[in-house]
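*** Fold description ***
***
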Amino acid sequence: MALEKVISLENAYIGVDNHLILEDVNLSVEQGEFVYVIGRVGSGKTSLIKTLNAELPLMQGRGMVCGYMLEELKRKEVPLLRRKLGIVFQDFKLLIDRTVDSNLEFALKATGWKDKEEIKDQIAEVLEKVDLGYKGYKMPHQLSGGEQQRVVIARALLNEPEIILADEPTGNLDPATSKDIMEILMEISQGGKAVMMATHNYNLIKKFPSRTLKCEGGKLVGANLSEAEFDRLIQNE
């Protein structure tokens, strides 16, 4: 049985303020796929993710994300698309003046949740998934970097999205904590959600191999890297 396609780009041109960054992009991602996007700083990794999230408009071509056509997307439809996406940032973007539970409650209310019991149950469920079921009362500054990133992943899971878009989610974390975060993301993918992760941490790709795409020279291309190439990339980081 064929899996459902959740991302599709055809002859897509991606850029910022009429500055072209990636051209003629053709991409297809299915349910439950885990896809890495690698490339140098400024090569287009983040612009690609922002286009899929409708933060940047598609300059040219066709794009589909979770059934929404990017080139036809109306402003009022953007929040509906984003409810189907979970976003994980490198720098957490947690509200520092409220507890973990309150951070997650804020995110749920912002996306239309109203019933107090349902909100409470959903928060408990996503915190359990990231092994933080006992830390909802804590403030962000009382958590380690890895724990804060787990909260960010929990927040991304609140609306049971079809896709997780992760932009350098381990960029500020030590190797052991990065491995823990990767195990959570891989588990999410195995549960049927597509995960697209921009990264320059080649050690992680080597440890958790999966389909890899590369932004290079204004193109998005498949990257089947040999062990020697991985080692060279790791040494250059």
User: Anything to note?
Assistant: The mean pLDDT is 90. The chain is about 35% helix and 25% strand. Strands lie at 5-16, 19-30, 34-38, 60-65, 68-69, 85-88, 163-167, 194-198, 211-216, 219-222. The radius of gyration is 18 Å.
